[in-house]
Write a sequence for this structure.
């Protein structure tokens, strides 16, 4: 599992470095207002797809690892999943039509029709890429998944480098075009790999347990996935509506800086779900505790480091006109521990067959975020949004711990203590194993 996490982490760090360079370049090329519109156009697909996919990603991640890479069983799971796709695409189109019609009434600065259309194409490309990526993760083909994940950031980096070298102008629409093409290419390559390498046997006959094991699991998971994405990016949409594109651009920079350690968290969660699905029942608690312990401490150390570094590196990297993002970046860093616990523990609960836990945690977090955003954003702008997110992450982390303890049938205090001690216990086990190996052996 460690090797898989490191492989995914290496890919995501490479993608993050490329994305950071692209983000810095595009931020300087676009300016605060265009950067704000670009942030809105790339956030909308997350909301729209989450509201339309019926929890399909959770269904695939839960069932594919349990297939043992049997082409017939894998084909049954994929055949059942494909029934969702046309409905989801139709819902995506309907939601974007609603956004185009309602946005002028909800905001004093409605997005242009071209921006909405480009965002809609990006949503379709992201949806298809997300499905193919999840299939590769469920089949535990992380090597292929990691290689294909670099297509989009590489294409974006090459495009931005060309714009800079040519001294050309860049707009939010052109940058969205690059994202659409990159996601579509990566999705097509993923489909080809799945078909040629894993050869699933698709069928028109649905499994007898389709309604109970697929549809029900997905529908229970879907509200949680939607609320999770909304909870992460709702503040940006409220900022856009109440404080304008400039404040949204400042907050986008703050989130980009403060969420740098999230790559390690995402890598671990990506590997954790299918690993728990294919692991023996007796090993699942130990895997969860060790993963949560390491990521919790990583979040704590990262939070302290980013709070100190934000005041120097945000204006240094993004320019003095983004000085207003410094405070928001430091505040957001305080929520990293809660975010780590929420992601890992809700993923574990879902992988253990309790998708309702993640749904409840995400909905509670969403209610807290919405309430605090509406209370603080009008007065404090990006800083108010940052405080709302940090507090919501911390509360949902505690709630996720309580639900996982209930799923495992043990006291919350003991589970929390084991998670906190996990890095120390792992070090002591490694030290003991080293001592045993180095001990002299006496032969009579």
């Amino acid at each position: 599992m460690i090797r898989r996490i490191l492989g995914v982490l290496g890919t995501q760090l490479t993608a993050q470095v490329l994305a950071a360079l692209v983000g810095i370049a595009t931020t300087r090329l676009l300016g605060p207002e265009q950067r704000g519109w670009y942030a809105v156009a790339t956030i909308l697909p997350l909301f729209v797809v989450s509201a339309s996919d019926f929890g399909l990603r959770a269904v695939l991640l839960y069932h594919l690892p349990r297939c043992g890479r049997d082409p017939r069983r894998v084909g049954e799971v994929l055949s059942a999943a494909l029934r969702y796709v046309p409905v989801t695409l139709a819902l995506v189109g309907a939601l974007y039509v609603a956004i185009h019609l309602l946005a002028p009434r909800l905001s004093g600065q409605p997005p242009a029709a071209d921006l909405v259309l480009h965002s809609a194409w990006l949503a379709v490309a992201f949806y298809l890429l997300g499905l193919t990526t999840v299939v590769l993760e469920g089949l535990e083909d992380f090597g292929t998944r990691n290689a294909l994940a670099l297509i989009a950031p590489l294409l974006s980096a090459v495009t931005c480098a060309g714009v800079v070298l040519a001294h050309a102008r860049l707009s939010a629409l052109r940058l969205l075009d690059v994202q659409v093409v990159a996601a579509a290419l990566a999705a097509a390559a993923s489909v080809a790999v799945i078909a040629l390498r894993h050869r699933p046997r698709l069928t028109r006959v649905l499994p007898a347990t389709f309604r109970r094991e697929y549809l029900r699991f997905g529908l229970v998971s879907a509200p949680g996935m939607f609320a999770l994405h909304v909870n992460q990016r709702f503040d940006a949409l409220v900022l856009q509506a109440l404080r304008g594109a400039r404040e949204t651009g400042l907050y986008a920079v703050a989130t980009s800086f403060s969420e740098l350690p999230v790559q390690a968290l995402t890598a671990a969660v990506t590997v954790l779900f299918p690993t728990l699905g294919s692991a023996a029942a007796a090993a699942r608690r130990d895997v969860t505790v060790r993963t949560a312990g390491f990521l919790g401490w990583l979040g704590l150390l990262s939070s302290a480091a980013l709070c100190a570094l934000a005041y120097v590196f945000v204006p240094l990297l993004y320019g003095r006109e983004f000085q207003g993002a410094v405070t928001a970046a430091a505040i957001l860093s305080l929520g990293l521990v809660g975010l780590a616990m929420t992601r890992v523990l809700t993923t574990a609960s879902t992988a253990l067959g309790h998708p309702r836990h993640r749904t409840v945690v995400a909905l509670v977090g969403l209610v807290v975020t919405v309430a605090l955003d509406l209370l603080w954003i009008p007065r404090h702008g990006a800083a108010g949004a940052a405080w709302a997110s940090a507090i919501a992450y911390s509360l949902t982390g505690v709630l996720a711990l309580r639900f996982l303890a209930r799923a495992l049938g043990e006291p919350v205090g003991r589970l929390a203590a084991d998670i906190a001690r996990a890095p120390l216990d792992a070090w002591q086990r490694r030290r003991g194993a080293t001592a045993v190996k180095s001990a002299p052996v006496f032969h009579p």
Q: What stands out?
A: The mean pLDDT is 80. The chain has one domain: 2-426. The CA atoms of residues 36 and 248 lie 5 Å apart.
